[in-house]
Design a protein that fits this description.
Elements (H helix, E strand, L loop, with lengths): L5 H4 L1 H13 L14 H14 L19 H4 L3 H11 L4 H24 L5 H12 L2 H10 L2 H20 L8 H15 L1 H21 L4 H18 L1 H11 L17 H5 L22 H16 L6 H20 L5 H6 L13 H7 L4 H7 L4 H19 L13 H8 L7 H4 L23 E3 L4 E6 L5 E7 L3 E8 L4 E5 L2 E3 L2 E2 L5 E6 L2 E9 L3 H21 L9
Antiparallel strand pairs: 1-4, 2-3, 3-9, 4-8, 5-6, 5-9, 7-8
Helix pairs in contact: 2-6, 3-5, 3-21, 5-6, 6-7, 6-9, 7-19, 7-20, 9-10, 9-11, 10-11, 10-12, 10-23, 11-16, 12-23, 13-23, 15-19, 15-20, 16-18
Length: 561
């Protein structure tokens, strides 16, 4: 009778069990103190526009004292799509965001396991997956920063890598093109900065495998090309307008990267705080890499150099790639890399060099291949090492996966704080919203709520608000006048006078929609719609998504581990 491996038989249960220490504090009532609690307000805004049947969501109505903002034209939408799905079936805004955080833990553990399983035994693969999840930076992402985009991006890094391993292997399968496309698109939509950070490393890996591993290089190039292209096309509705329309916005970042280079000592100091990143080595938040991860990388690197000859070519490429990611990330977080931050396109938008800790978290488990190879024929040693990696990863780091304080705040608190709905609360008035890059025509931020439409004269008879964005304005004037509509002038807005399209411009000082209305009685309609260019990109994305799903439907890609 064939013996069934324990990890294989109970994999899903084991992953859920090992995830509990990381997610246990997500079960507390309400929300806790994090830097990016504004994500609750952003989810509220997504819910508003989804219920207005604006899909894909782009322009939200309430931010910036009701002038709205093209928020999801620039902010990664996928984590909010997922949270909105839970909100629509009855969960609160706070609960929906916490569910997304919680799901990221077992899913990222599972996909890292699947990646490592390509090179090592089940026990060691599981150990690497646990190491990936219990890096201190992962705790910081959830319980200190509360950054929903980056924590979701962790799910897709190993899945993308696994996909391109399959596409550049000698297996004759085109089906991994579908999952490569979906996972690449998911990374772009989860956190565009993480995608920009990871893609150069991925391309190095793919090229190396095509050159030295793939027997049919034409086939490998073709499959990899289609996998990458399908990912870019599936997400093109988001990233292409974001790049194109970025030129319409003022070039500005809230944080200067010069102020956020960690010191090397901070990487190895077991400190964990709930404060902020500040200039110099005085940060009250942690950049600690974790003892277990550091030990795996350092010992693995030494053994790899000494035992280099025992590794196959494919294993060497995998380990060298992990080494490049790890040490290149260390360099990019050091002040000596400032010349790159100054000159590489869009890099200053990363804002925090320590964001490369994401790559450190990803690269560290790859070094377990060294131990898997060294003890390949010594099952007991391999299992023992796996056990200790899992034990110390959790034992030394689970204490970081907790809230700093039980605030117990529910939806109403964040709506009052971040959304000037009807009236602007005192809490909202104290929120600067400096994270919103203003349109170029905007000379200053609004500082109070205005009517949906206003003018310098008494020309408006009645305003009929059709939605939080659209309105019909009845005017009557003896003279031509300018009508101001309190939304930022931005692509997608359309105005009509008596049913005929009319020109709109950006007015002063807010860059608000401005319409010249002739004398007489008129009906002015202002609406937000998908522009023709965006609509075409939406169609391309839907078609690419459909193609990926059709490819995937042909086979269960994860039927074995």
């Amino acid at each position: 009778m064939k013996k069934v491996n324990f990890v294989k038989k109970y994999l899903y249960f084991i992953i859920l069990l090992l995830s509990i220490p990381a997610v246990r504090y997500l079960f507390v009532d309400g929300y806790f103190g994090v830097s990016d609690d504004l994500h609750i307000g952003w989810l509220f805004e997504m819910d508003r526009v989804v219920k207005m049947l604006q899909f894909p969501p782009r322009y939200v109505p309430d931010l910036s004292f009701g002038f709205g903002y093209p928020l999801f034209s620039f902010v990664y939408p996928l984590p909010f799509y997922i949270a909105e799905a839970f909100h629509l079936i009855g969960f609160s805004l706070v609960g929906s965001v916490k569910i997304v955080f919680g799901l990221s833990i077992p899913f990222s553990m599972y996909f890292m396991y699947k990646l490592l399983r390509q090179f090592m035994a089940r026990e060691m693969s599981l150990a690497g997956a646990v190491l990936y999840v219990y890096a201190p930076y992962r705790a910081l992402e959830i319980f200190v920063r509360g950054t929903i985009g980056e924590i979701v991006a962790f799910v897709f890094l190993p899945l993308i890598t696994l996909s391109f391993i399959k596409l550049t292997s000698n297996e004759k399968s085109f089906k991994w093109v579908g999952i490569a496309g979906l996972s690449t698109a998911a990374l772009v939509l989860s956190h565009n900065i993480m995608a920009y950070m990871f893609m150069p490393f991925l391309l190095i890996f793919v090229v190396a495998r095509i050159i030295w591993i793939s027997k049919d290089k034409k086939e490998a190039i073709s499959r990899s090309f289609w996998g990458l292209l399908s990912g870019l096309l599936t997400s093109i509705y988001f990233w292409f307008p974001a790049i194109l329309e970025s030129r319409l916005m003022q070039y500005d970042t809230v944080f200067n990267f010069y102020n956020h280079f960690p010191t090397l000592r901070q990487f190895i100091t077991p400190y964990f705080g709930y404060g902020a990143s500040v200039p110099g080595p005085y940060d009250t938040m942690s950049f600690y890499m974790g003892f277990t991860g550091l030990a795996v990388v350092l010992l693995g690197s030494i053994i790899f150099v000494k035992k280099y000859k025992i590794f196959s070519l494919e294993e060497k490429i995998f380990l060298l790639w992990g080494t490049v990611i790890f040490f290149a990330s260390i360099f990019m977080m050091n002040h000596r890399s400032a010349f790159l931050w100054e000159n590489l396109p869009l890099l200053p938008y990363f804002q925090f060099p320590w964001r490369f800790l994401v790559m450190i978290c990803f690269a560290s488990p790859l070094f377990l291949l060294v131990f898997a190879k060294l003890f390949k024929n010594k099952k007991n040693f391999s299992v023992l090492i796996s056990f200790f990696v899992i034990l110390f990863s959790i034992l030394l780091n689970f204490k970081y996966f907790k809230t700093s304080e039980y605030l117990g705040r529910e939806d109403a608190y964040y709506i009052n704080r971040y959304i000037p709905k009807g009236t602007a609360s005192d809490a909202y008035k104290q929120t600067s919203e400096e994270y919103l890059r203003l349109p170029k025509a905007t000379q200053k931020r609004p500082d109070k709520l205005y009517k949906r439409a206003y003018t310098d004269s008494a020309a408006i008879l009645r305003i009929e608000e059709k939605s939080a964005l659209d309105a019909k304005i009845i005017t009557d004037s003896e003279y031509e006048f300018e009508l101001y509509y309190t939304k930022y002038m931005y692509p997608g807005w359309v105005a009509k006078i008596d049913g005929k399209r009319t020109e709109i411009i950006a007015g002063k000082p807010f860059g608000q929609i401005t319409i010249t209305v002739p004398a007489g009685t008129h009906v002015v309609e202002v609406e937000y719609r998908e522009s023709t260019m965006r609509l075409l990109l939406d169609i391309v994305s839907v078609m690419s998504l459909g193609a990926c799903i059709v490819i995937l439907s042909k086979e269960d890609l994860f039927k074995s581990d």
